[in-house]
Each structure stands twice: as structure tokens, then as C-alpha cells.
Write a structure and sequence with these properties.
Elements lengths: L1 H21 L7 H138 L2 H15 L1
Helix pairs in contact: 1-2
Length: 185
């Protein structure tokens, strides 16, 4: 403490001496005196701050250093936590992407299977419909043939009843009667 006071006094004296030597005496003694007093006041203030304020200022600065170090530590810890959470979130996103991709693949494969099943079912149904239609057509054709035969026979009988009595003679009737009796025996 004394060394710093002695050094600051020597520096002050040297500055004052240099100023006095370099100043012009024609201006008077007052400007030089003001400068010397400013330096003297500055030296006293410096001595008082160093003598009485050094320990509280140092304690304050040490305390501020500790507070700042604690804040930095807390911020670094928060940064580590956020970094960890960010990495976990990234991993979750990657896992989610893989999971979504597998779900999409499964849905697509299920869709393809369902599509194939529907197509096969439609083919079976169309085969059954074609078979049913063919049977119905065959049945309709047989029915139409039968109806046509019945109508043809009815028309033939009607025509024969209309024309045969005129064409059949007594002799023809006798031959038919003999044939009928022979078929009964």
C-alpha cells in the first residue's frame, strides 16, 4: 500500500514539475496552481479509494465474479439439458419417421391385398353371373323351343282338323279304325 502511494506521489510530482517548466509564466501563477491542485486532489482521491475502497471493491468484484460464474454454470447446464432434449427429440422424430414409413408400407401392402381380394371376388362374381346368364339363356331357349313346338303342334292340329275332314274318305276311316283296333289287341 505504501509503495503504491509513494509511486503515485512521485508520478504526481514529476507531472507537476514538467507542467511548471513547460508553462508560460507570463499567464500568471493561477493556471499552474489550478493544475497542481487538480493533480493533488486526484492523488488524494486515488489514495483514499485505494486505502479504504480496495477491500470492499475487491469483495464486490469477487462476489460479482462468483455470481457471473454461477449464472454461466446454470446457463451451460441449461444448454446441456436443451441439447440433450433436442437430441432426444431428433431421435424421436427419426424413430417416428421410420415408424410412419413402416405403417405406410403395411397400409400399402394391405391395400394391395385388399385390391387383389376385391378383384378376385369380382371375377368370381362375374363368372357366377355369366354361368347364371348362360343357364337362364339355355332355359329360355329350351322354353322357347318347347313353346314353339307346342304352338306348331297346335297349329298343325288346327290345320289338320280344318282340312283333314274334307280330305278323308270313308275308306280311309275304315283303315284307321282297323289300325286302332289292332293296336288295342
Amino acid at each position: 500500500m505504501k509503495k503504491s502511494y509513494i509511486i503515485s506521489s512521485i508520478i504526481l510530482a514529476a507531472c507537476m514539475a514538467a507542467h511548471l517548466m513547460l508553462s508560460d509564466i507570463s499567464d500568471g501563477w493561477r493556471p499552474a496552481y489550478d493544475i497542481v491542485m487538480k493533480w493533488l486532489n486526484f492523488s488524494i482521491l486515488t489514495y483514499l479509494l485505494v486505502r479504504f475502497g480496495k477491500e470492499p471493491v475487491m469483495n464486490f468484484l469477487h462476489h460479482q465474479k462468483e455470481v457471473v460464474e454461477e449464472e454461466i454454470g446454470e446457463l451451460e447446464e441449461a444448454k446441456k439439458q436443451v441439447t440433450t432434449e433436442l437430441e432426444e427429440t431428433r431421435n424421436l422424430v427419426e424413430d417416428s419417421k421410420a415408424h410412419i414409413s413402416s405403417i405406410q408400407e403395411r397400409i400399402v401392402s394391405q391395400g394391395e391385398k385388399e385390391k387383389e381380394r376385391i378383384i378376385e371376388e369380382a371375377k368370381n362374381q362375374s363368372r357366377l353371373m355369366i354361368k347364371g346368364a348362360k343357364k337362364k339363356i339355355s332355359s329360355n331357349i329350351l322354353q322357347a323351343k318347347s313353346d314353339f313346338r307346342s304352338e306348331l303342334i297346335d297349329k298343325a292340329i288346327a290345320l289338320s282338323l280344318e282340312f283333314l275332314p274334307k280330305e278323308i274318305t270313308e275308306n280311309d276311316r275304315q283303315i284307321m279304325l282297323n289300325n286302332f283296333i289292332a293296336s288295342l289287341k
